[in-house]
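Title: Comparing notes on inverse folding

I've been comparing how different people in this forum approach sequence design from structure. To keep things fair, I'm posting one structure and asking everyone to reply with a full sequence. Here's the target:
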């Protein structure tokens, strides 16, 4: 993990309190691989109860502990894969994604295991992702490209996002992941990505229909020429639009924008207004 991950900034979505009948949507139980091991994630009460009822886990105080789970990374990964098969067969989690993701108790700690991406949200695991702000410098000021996610996208269907956003698979560096996603989602080749500029790392925790979503985002800025036209290769994006400062401010109020993307775009806007946008931002500081 890169050193500039310390410290990470954590932000939570603000939701109103709800009746007790809806509590499982907003309350999550911590889970461990072993009684004396670290907490690896947090899952909804209904999923925790299903695992315990089936003997896949057992209560451990307020939380729960997996049954028959090795503590070494390879052994725990195999146990989680068996658990994923069982949970998917019982319609408790989405189908397999085919992407292996690293599992860490905390973003700055060593890898404890790995699992298919479909396990990450339902089990409340930290997911590493990358975002690219595609910016076009003009005499009137910088413009910013946004992308509209397909209504069939697995997550955040029909919502606007940064130009590029995607997962950082097991074994990838943030830059490798950013370059891969840049080609798949926006048609950017290696030469066009040569100017990728790291802007920092931020950690978010928020509620989603699939569970507690915890993600560590590595942010990049990328200068693009005025004649650049994005092209999506993976089917997740249906529309691109380049916003100037005025229309971007209106879009932030009017358009459905992903929770994480809204924070990232807002940070980009503040940096253009208040800071030198060419100064490298490191650590979890998103204040400029």
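Reply #1:
Here's my take.
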């Amino acid at each position: 993990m890169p050193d500039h991950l310390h410290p990470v900034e954590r932000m939570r979505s603000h939701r109103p309190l709800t009746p007790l009948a809806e509590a499982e949507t907003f309350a999550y139980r911590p889970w461990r691989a072993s009684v004396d091991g670290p907490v690896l994630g947090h899952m909804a009460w209904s999923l925790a109860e299903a695992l315990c009822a089936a003997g896949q886990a057992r209560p451990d105080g307020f939380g729960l502990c997996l049954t028959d789970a090795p503590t070494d990374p390879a052994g725990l990964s195999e146990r989680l894969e068996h658990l994923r098969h069982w949970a998917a067969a019982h319609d408790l989690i989405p189908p397999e994604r085919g992407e292996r993701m690293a599992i860490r108790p905390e973003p700055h700690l060593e890898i404890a295991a790995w699992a298919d991406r479909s396990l990450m949200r339902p089990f409340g695991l930290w997911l590493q992702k990358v975002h690219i702000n595609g910016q076009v410098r003009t005499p009137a000021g910088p413009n910013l490209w946004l992308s509209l996610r397909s209504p069939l996208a697995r997550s955040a269907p029909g919502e606007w996002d940064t130009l590029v956003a995607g997962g950082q698979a097991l074994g990838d560096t943030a830059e490798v992941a950013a370059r891969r996603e840049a080609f798949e989602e926006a048609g950017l080749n290696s030469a066009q990505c040569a100017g990728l500029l790291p802007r920092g790392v931020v950690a978010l925790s928020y509620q989603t229909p699939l569970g507690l979503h915890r993600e560590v985002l590595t942010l990049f800025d990328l200068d693009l020429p005025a004649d650049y036209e994005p092209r999506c290769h993976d089917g997740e994006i249906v529309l691109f639009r380049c916003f100037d400062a005025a229309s971007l401010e209106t879009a932030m109020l009017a358009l459905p924008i992903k929770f994480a993307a809204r924070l990232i775009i807002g940070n980009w806007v503040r940096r253009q207004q208040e800071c030198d946008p060419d100064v490298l931002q490191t650590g979890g500081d998103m204040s400029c």
